[in-house]
Amino acid sequence: MSHSLFSFQNIISNLLKSQTEQEEVTSAQALEIVYQELLEKISTAFAHRDTKETVLSGGIALSSQHALDCLKDPLRTVRFIKSMNAAIMDAQKQFPNDTIEILYAGCGPVAPIILPLLHLYQSNELQVTLLDITATSKFSVTALIELLGAQSFFKPFQLCDAISYKHPSETPLHIIVSEVMDKALLREPQVRVTQNLVPQLSENGIFIPQRIDIFQEFSFYGKEPYFDIYKNVLKLGPTYDTIGRSQLFSISEAINTNSNFNFTSEIIDVPQHIEAHPDVCIFAELVIYKSFVLTKSQSLLSNPISVFSLFNLKSKQFQLTYTTTDIPKWILTPII
Length: 336
Ligand SMILES: C[S@@+](CC[C@H](N)C(=O)[O-])C[C@H]1O[C@@H](n2cnc3c(N)ncnc32)[C@H](O)[C@@H]1O
What we know:
By secondary structure, the protein is of the alpha/beta class. Helices cover 23% and strands 27% of the residues. The longest helix is centred in the first third of the chain and has 21 residues, at 21-41. S-adenosylmethionine binds at residues 56, 61-62, 67, 70-71, 106-108, 112-113, 131-134, 137, 161-163, 179-180, 189, 193.
């Protein structure tokens, strides 16, 4: 049987129509199966099984296998695809005379946020530059594109670091998508990549994700619902009643691009009674595009982390610092 971009037609039709979370999960599972079948057919079979990550100054780039595993984060995958399709349609209205130029930074071995949508468009309507630092991802996705006969949609692949990539200025970018993030913006270089790419967007262009909001709260971490790729995201259990939630910062197109992003919170008071809320927790919520969002614990990207146990804290106040220098991390500093 020959393969083409229309291999995704039924799945994408159902995915874009999906209303309930159950329908979204079903669509993500169907997409994963099609990708598995396609990957078995390509000449670079097994390249995607590479598990070697790349340490960059600004964050860690996932291996091909771990990037592929992100397909198993169903609400994430489906909502990024819905967002991309909505963004393309909006960009076509905003720039009616232009071929829409898309940069997909961190496409992994299967470029799931754009490849399944391409059968809905013509290659004179949109052009895609794929970028990833991992050579095995380049081999897999290039072979997939050939298998699907989709070469006319793609500019040359960029095997490089998105933290320093400069797109040619003669082809201004209408849409940039980059999902290179882990929970609470830990480890992966989402912030530094955003800082580098936002200034390269056309005026009125679209950056996906549109906004990432970072929250702090006090919780009992072990009782929090927490998604991982071996769990059913729809059966994570009841939410835990946290206290003291406050927003720390947001990442969006308005990000300061002049220097490495660092954040230090206001002074935060330790609650009077800590037994039911002993952990200082941080999590992200995303506005991927317009109404497509990921709220707490719905995805690997929006899971909470526990930064510190108050049982081990000697002071009554503390500050939180987020730094993107070397590997992104959170630090709690007691105020004595
Ligand atoms: C979380 S995975 C997402 C893969 C795929 N886009 C998806 O949505 O399923 C992130 C991908 O971005 C790549 N990546 C991370 N940081 C990068 C960087 N600074 N430059 C280039 N690629 C990067 C990783 O190698 C990995 O393939």
